[in-house]
Structure formats: structure tokens, C-alpha cells
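Hi L.,

You mentioned the student needs an example of a multi-chain input paired with its predicted structure. This one should do, with 698 residues in total across all chains.
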Amino acid sequence: MDCADCTRHVASALSALPGVHKVDVFLASEKAILELDPEHVTLPMIRQAVAAAGYSVPEPASQAKDPLTAQAVTFSRKVLGLFGLVFGAVLLFVVLGEWLGVFKKMTAYIPWHLGTVAVLLAGFPVFINVVRAALRRTIIAHTLMTLGVLAALAVGEWTTAAVVVFFMRVGDYVEKFTSERARRAVKNLAALAPQTARLETEEGEIEAPISQVKPGDTVVIRPGEKIPVDGEVLSGLATIDQAAITGESMPVDAGPGSRVFAATLVRLGSLRVRVNHVGEDTTFGKVIRLVEQAEARRAEVQRLADRFSSWYLPIVSVIALLTFLLRRDPLAVTAVLVVACSCSFALATPIAIMASVGASARRGLLIKGGKYLEALARADVLLVDKTGTLTLGKPHICEIFPAAGLDEEYLLRMAASAERYSEHPLAEAVRKLAEKRGTSPITPQDFTALPGLGVKARLEGKEVWVGNYQFISESLRVSQLGSAGNEPDTALFARVRELEAHGKTILYVSIAGQLAGILAAEDALRPEMPLALEETKRLGIEKIELLTGDEERTAAELANLLNISYRASLLPEEKIAIVQQYQSAGRIVVMIGDGVNDAPALAQADVGIAMGAAGSDIAIEAAHIALMRDDWRLIPEALRIARRTMNVIKVNLAFTAVYNLVGVSLAALGILPPIAAAAAQSLPDLGILGNSSRLLKQ
Ligand code: ADP
Ligand code: MG
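Structure written out for the whole complex:
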């Protein structure tokens, strides 16, 4: 497939098969993904359908024809192509020379039937596609050109027809080159993963293709080599350049227990790694797959362009017919048909999007489709989660304050044991402190975690709750939080207010229905965040709002510091509702979260951006855009890339529209002769390529 129209043809041929439910055809990766009923559809049927549409499914490498034959075929094709090119160039030279009056009637010495045969032969590969399409009752871009060639031959202008055919073939190459260029951004990415691994076996180390490596195996990586799998370091120390995944080339250290990722580079040292994931299951493999499939999530402008390009050919046919009826000039008709023949409309959007998605992936910004680039370019509301998003998400406990009559050790021991099975960063902070102080944990029974609230568990027969104010108040047999009739622990609550005013998060602990004390957690802001937020505002995001499950005062502190608005004490489902509110007010909402507990809100937003995606399946799956490295500077960058992409697309479309309009008008009026029209026809593709390749370098 070398032009976006092709994907449509292949897709319609495949979806016409009985038993095929859904088809996605990808131009950039030259793949098709089918959802089908295996009882009705077989691989040979799929091959046949694709072949009937004029394309082919390459044999899997192992079953390919013997390489010599294949080589011979490509070689003879190349020779033929080259011959045609040289012959065409000479002819062009002669014809142009005659046209300009430099040569005298040289072509007149060639009999017209010989010329006609030569034209038909040279254009054969194109004509055959046109005939195939006609049999399927569709017209393709080349159909018009073929009609143009036939019109020229009919009036005996075989030299004109020859030049048109020459440029038709040149145009094909340009188009092939153009889409190949765009495709390369994706292919280059895939080439970053090594294809072999040094496998540790009983007979020693052997070099094995990656397809033979299985989870549980042990592989060895030497200095300067790329890690072939996702896995865990068994032994060795190394510094690793993770740029292939995170876009960040600042090396990180790895030692026993560290997680390492496929396609990253061991700079110094060597490692023995236990394999967890191989090939498509690795984080890198998932990134590649998503980038390849980014085309499927089409931007609205692309739909528009596609719809237009399906109208385009009929419109041009009508103009050609009118030209014929009004001006009775077959050469003008030829010129109209020839100049209008270009895939540029179909190419204008996907090329720009492929270029941007590919370039972004290289810098650690995984964009799952044109749709999200478009939404991002138009976004006006940015909602951000707090823990793990604005903050580093690695809180530590900075204070323990037991209720009157209890001691710190006991409070910490109970809290850490209740938090034993929670994956929340706050739980980890509590456990870490308990470990540091050497308290012995109790194995909890009946553990329950309530997202956005806290945890409860039974410890040595006692109910222990750890969580926020709202949560803990439910656990208390009699309210000890300062309501009427109860003497609150005044010293404790005075301290709570102080801590909250300094932006600390308070974890309340209750034991057997009694308030047992609090732990205060401190989580540092991401250092690059304030500047990145400023820049985001400058890029025209009108509203930035902090959404957090944390308490009012803690949130207020942070929001004031950053000069943004906030809403506190939110449950995960309330975050979704807020996203929906903004959306129904016509706003385009970007939501940034750390992926795991924010997944539903991320999915609801027009663009959900997940932090910390490297290695986290949920973040990669749930979000529309994933930041492979936790760096806020990628947010304004994503906004900028999105806007630049949309601008490039608009310029591409406008350029193509104006070019074709002017070209067709001049041709219809007889000002643009067919030969010039043929030469002009491949220019829009080059223009689009040139304009879009700005995106590759961003
Ligand atoms: P955020 O919206 O800031 O990412 P969450 O929704 O994860 O925060 O949690 C909201 C609040 O619920 C936390 O600030 C904390 O007070 C409480 N909480 C949630 N999970 C736990 C837990 N495992 N232990 C203690 N408190 C928790
Ligand atoms: Mg969070």
C-alpha cells in the first residue's frame, strides 16, 4: 500500500468477507487487524480477498519462496523500472526540445503505432490496477489519468500520452517515497529493540533469537549492549540509558532487584537478568504497537479529508466532462484528468500525524492517535490529580502524634500492619517508617481498601482503620472529632490544623472505634512542575484545576502556592463527574493523573494523560497519552506538538486544495498543456512531505 486510498480499498475488500466483524488497516505499519469468526474466515480467504483488491499479503519469513527466486524477481523489476525511467527521460528530453523548438520533429520519425504500443507497455502496471478497480466497480485516482492517456492516444498525440505515463510513474515513486518517509519514523522506532539475546543455559551462554527466549529464562547483557527483554536484575551493577523508552538519556543505575526494560542500553557494567516479558509483551513492544495503531484513532480533520477525497474523483470527472462538452478539446480534457490525479488529499493528514506520533514517541511521549492530538490542540481545561502527579508520589511520614495515653510505637505498628496490603503511596510511606524503626508487623485479617478514603483491617481481634477525616469519622463509636457532647483531643487537633496549613496530608488511625492518633505525610512537589505549569498557562489553557482526594486545607495550601483552583475530598467517581460537567459546558478537557486510581477519569476526559507509564500496564492502556518519563515539561511540549501538527495539517489541506483548484481551472481553460499538467501532478505530494517533515525534527 502506498497511498491512503489503498487502506480504504483493502479495508472494504476485507470487510466484505462473511464472518469479518471489524477491520482496521494501517498504512504506516502496513498491517491489518481483523476481528473475525474463525469458523467462517481462513487465512487463505483473507489473502485471496486482498489479492483480488490488487494488493498482497507477504508470506511469513519462514515460508517465503526460496530467496534466489525472490531476489531474481526484485532484480528484474528494478532493471525494468530503470529501463523505463531512462527511456522516459530521453523521450521527455526530446519532446520538451521539440516543444521549445530546439529540436525539429524528431518524434515524427517514430511511427505512431509503435509509440502507442510503447505507451501501453510503460503504463501497464498502472492500467492493470485501474482495470482491477473497474471490475470492482470503483474508480481510483489512476482511473482518471488512464482516461486522459486514452484520450490523448485517441487523437494521435502519442508523445503527450508518453510524457503523461512517464510522470504518472514518477508520481507513483514520489508517493511511495513520501509514505515510506513517514513510515520510517515508526520503523526506526521498532528497530531499537535487539533481535537476539545472550541466553544462559546449562551448556553456557548462547546467542539465541528473541523468539526462543521465554519468561523465567536468564539472559546476560554486556557493556554497550541493549537489553533484549523486560525483566529483573539477578546480579550485576550497571548504568542504563533508558532513552528508547523514556526519551531521557540521563543514565540510571540498576542493581539486583531493579526492573529493566527491553530496548534500553547498558552503558557501563554488565547484568544477569531474569526474563519477565519478551517481544510484544514488553513495555517497548506495547509502545510500538500503540504507535503503529495510532492511525486508527482518526482526527476529525482526517475524516473530513477522507470524505472529501471520496467526493473528489466524481467532481473532477464532471469537470472533465464539462470541458469536453463545452470546449471539445481532448487535450484540455487530458490535462484536467492528469493534473487532478493525486492522492494528496488522502495523504495530507496521516503523514503529518505519523510524523508527530513517531517523533513524540522517541522523546518519551506516547500519543495514541490523531484524535488526541487534535483534541489537545483545542483543549482549554486542564485537570490535575495531586498525589503522584503534582507531587512526586513518594510521601514520607514526617510526624506521629498519638492520642492521649497511647505511645508512638504502638500507633505506628498498628497503622503499618493495617496498611500492609495497600498499594497506595501513603501506605508505603507508613510501612517504610515502621520498618526503619524496627517494629514487628502483625498479619492483618479482613483487609479492605476503599479508594480515595483509606483502609481497614482486623488486627489481633481489633478493627483498625487508617484514612482521611471523612473515612475515620465513620469508624468511631462515639465521635471524638470535636462534636458536641464529646471532649476532643484538643492538643491533637491543634497540631492537625498546623500540619494541614503547611500542606501535609493527615492520616487518621482508629483502633476498636477509638481515635488512636494521626500520622502526617509530606510529599514533595515535582521540582520542574511550577515552571511547566506557567508555560502551560502561557500556551492558552484557560483553566487549571487541582482535583484531589486529600483534605481541603492541604489542597488549598498547594493550590495557592501554584496559583490554580482546586476541589478537595473527592472520591474517584466524583472526579469523573467533574470531567463530565466541564464537557457538557462545551469545554475540551485534558486530565492528568498517575494512571492507576485515576484511570476512569482519564478515560472520560477528551485527552487523558498518564504520568509514570514506563513499566505500568494500566497507565499505558487507560490513558490516551502516556508520559514514559515523569517529567512535567512534557505537558507543554505535548501541547506545542499538537498545535504544530494541526497547523501543518491545515497548511497541507489548504495547499492541496488551492493547487488542485488552480491546476484544474488552468487545464480546463487550455492554458496548462497535458505535458505540464503531468509534471505538475506530483508536486503536491512533495509539498506535503516537505511541510510535514518539519514535524519529524521537532
Ligand atoms: P489523590 O486524589 O490525591 O491522588 P487518593 O484519591 O489516592 O488521592 O486518596 C485520597 C485520600 O484518601 C488520601 O489523601 C488519603 O487521605 C486517603 N487514602 C487513600 N488511600 C489510603 C490508604 N491506603 N491509607 C491511608 N489513607 C488513604
Ligand atoms: Mg493519585
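You could point out the following to them. The pocket of magnesium ion (ligand 2) is lined by residues 385, 387-389, 594, 597-598 (CB under 6 Å). The chain has a mean pLDDT of 85.

Best wishes,
N.
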